[in-house]
Amino acid sequence: MRYKPILLLALALMLCPKKTTAAEYSCNNRYAIVMTLESPADREKICAAAGKALDFLAHYDLYPQRKININIVETSIMSESYDAFGSYNCLSDVIDLMSYQAIFAALNQPEMYGETFDDVHYSGLIAHEIAHAVMQHNLMTKHISPAPQEYLAHATQLAVMPENRRRAIIKVMDVGPWQTGDVISDVYMALEPGKFAVKSYLHLTTMEQPKNFIRMLLQSKWFYVNVP
Question: Quick one: which of 226, 224, 217 has its CA closest to 188?
Fold first, then answer.
């Protein structure tokens, strides 16, 4: 099966958690992160990426309210016609994440944001799903639409990347931050995922009072967000 470009991004899919016989490991840092995976070799990589994401989110007073469970799988993650490298299930509060090896087993030349997929993008993928989990832990409403979730997840994904790699993506996408009066929508995200990510990262990291905007996202009930 050939993956569509938009489906290569770590979208928040509604999936049932997969059963696994893998061993359980905990990250040796201040965050309560527990994962199940077949090989301990990837544990430090995953813990490091998760830690970077949580450090970034902490700048906006967003903290996990309970342990974060990550289930590393060796098969494709699918929901209806969607294929993804990772997903967060808000019902089970579990992140399903394809292993690095499984991604390359599924695709000969995987890509992310128009670049060849590599360790840097895998770390970003992990950060993306961590952001989904932390946002769910801090919601100020019962349900939240995709647009605000993906805004924060993509911003976090870019934030944990090395500066030179992030700058390269920003240059190629050639867009500025969201502006007053803009509409942040999941439709735009589906059509231009890379540009959506860059606009969200630039907007979040350059605004004067980002915490106020974060609070607005946490109680958003619509399929779009109007930028004040």
Answer: 224
Per residue of the chain (228 residues), give pLDDT as tens. 333 443 344 433 333 334 445 789 999 777 889 999 877 778 989 999 999 999 999 999 999 999 999 999 998 887 545 578 999 999 999 999 999 999 999 999 999 999 999 999 999 999 999 999 999 999 998 888 899 999 999 999 999 999 999 999 999 999 999 999 999 999 999 999 999 999 999 999 999 999 999 999 999 877 789 999
Map tokens 């932390």 to a residue: 134
Residue 167, both tokens: 């700058």
- Domain boundaries along the sequence of the chain: 5-137, 146-226
10 Å CB burial of residue 225 (0-12, 13-18, 19+) is buried
3-state secondary structure at position 46: helix
What is the crossing angle of helices 163-173 and 146-159, to 10°?
130
Please tell me whether the overall predicted TM-score, pTM, comes out greater than 0.70 for this model.
yes
For the chain, the residue count is: 228
What CATH code is assigned to 5-137?
A: 3.40.30
Report residue 126 as tokens: 């992990």
Contacts 24+ apart (CB under 8 A), 63-67: 63/134, 63/137, 63/138, 64/31, 64/32, 64/133, 64/134, 64/137, 65/137, 65/138, 66/32, 66/93, 66/137, 67/32, 67/33, 67/34
Residue type, 38: E
